[in-house]
């Protein structure tokens, strides 16, 4: 296989929250809305949309968790679409306190990484126990991001500031 000069990067999942600012009748919403189901055991209404491809967990308190977006903009757009569905069903839903809670991104630096050497030079930030997990766990302090670094050169980044910093973390 040929090696690449440029690392490949990309966000793979964004989790955001928003408060719709009103109590909701989840059973009613699930009966009226498309691609929706109500889970009374958990007290959550699950709704999916295709564009952007996301899933929302909506609670009777009006709190919502949106997952699956590939960018912060997509996550905000999806959350607004879910809020609009609730509004159209007669609830006075607003769009309060939108916040990105977590992001997962990945990249391939296109060269092998010597994990034993990395853990020795960055002991205060990293742990590497190959018999338990094949990747090195690197905990950055500022920004607070956790990287899972693999011998292959593949890196997975998680944290709520990944979108803005995954190029620096490489």
TrEMBL record:
Q: Which Gene3D superfamilies match?
A: TATA-Binding Protein
Task: Give yes or no: UniProt keyword DNA-binding.
Answer: yes
Which InterPro entries does its entry note? TBP, TBP_dom_sf, TBP_eukaryotic
Q: Which GO terms describe its cellular component?
A: nucleus
Q: Superkingdom of this entry's organism?
A: Eukaryota
Q: Where in the cell is it found?
A: Nucleus
User: Cross-referenced SUPFAM superfamilies, in alphabetical order?
Assistant: TATA-box binding protein-like
Q: Which terms are listed as keywords in the entry?
A: DNA-binding, Nucleus, Transcription
**One of the GO BP terms on file:** DNA-templated transcription initiation
Q: Which family does it belong to?
A: Belongs to the TBP family.
Specify the protein name. TATA box-binding protein-like protein 2
Which lineage ranks, top first, belong to the organism behind this chain?
Eukaryota, Metazoa, Chordata, Craniata, Vertebrata
Q: What gene name is given for the protein in this entry?
A: tbpl2
